[in-house]
Amino acid sequence: MKRIKVSVAALLVGASMVLMSSCIGSFSLFNKVLDWNKKATNNKWVNELIFVCLTIIPVYEVSYFLDAILFNSLEFWTGQSPLANVDVTVKGEKGEYHVKSTTNGYHVELLGSNLSADFLFDEATKTWSLSENGKQTKLVQFVDDNTAKFYTGTSEMTVDMASTLNLLAAR
Predict the structure, then answer these.
(1) Which of 128, 127, 86 has its CA nearest to residue 108?
(2) What is the rounded distance in angstroms from the CA atom of residue 75 to the CA atom of residue 83?
């Protein structure tokens, strides 16, 4: 009997290592539930009551479990979150903007006008660009895990992320 328990435990640990190796993931489903809960009403006490109910029912627990076991594993193996599609309207200084995911970035348009722009990600060069009125402008390029180049129109600035974080931590 003890041998069976050890075998089952070893199998579960092995399966966990394969399914969740180096994958923390974005926890998209859990965060969507949490974001909805934060904005459910304008009253923080009612939002807290909703939070407690969603914890008792167990909406939070199920969404966390699905993210940890299923969606984050899919995100690790495919390279993209199955829940990452965006289609929202947000309020800004100059009005409301509609933001929608595309295959390689986001399309943003100012509602009630003919103004729109695309934020595009080039996987080959790891570069985010702004495409507006047929003109494409580089914004940032990720050189490696620690280095990024930021483009400011006519110049560029290379930033070593590790050094920057160390400087900020030292303050």
Answers:
(1) 86
(2) 9
How would you write the pLDDT of the chain (171 residues) with one tens digit per residue?
555 554 544 444 444 444 444 457 788 888 888 888 888 888 888 888 888 888 888 888 888 888 887 777 777 777 767 666 777 787 878 888 888 888 888 889 999 998 999 989 898 998 889 998 889 998 888 888 778 888 887 888 888 777 766 666 666
Place of tokens 């926890």: 27
91 pairs with which residues across the strands? 96
3-state secondary structure the chain: CHHHHHHHHHHHHHHHHHHCCCCCCCCHHHHHHHHHHHHCCCCHHHHHHHHHHHHHCCHHHHHHHHHHHHHHHHHHHHCCCCCCCCEEEEEECCEEEEEEEECCEEEEEECCCCCEEEEEEECCCCEEEEEECCEEEEEEEECCCCEEEEEECCEEEEEEHHHHHHHHHHC
CA–CA distances in Å: residue 169 to residues 159, 162, 165:
16, 10, 6
Q: Is the pTM of this model over 0.70?
A: no
Is the sign of the CA dihedral 162, 130, 36, 33 positive or negative? negative
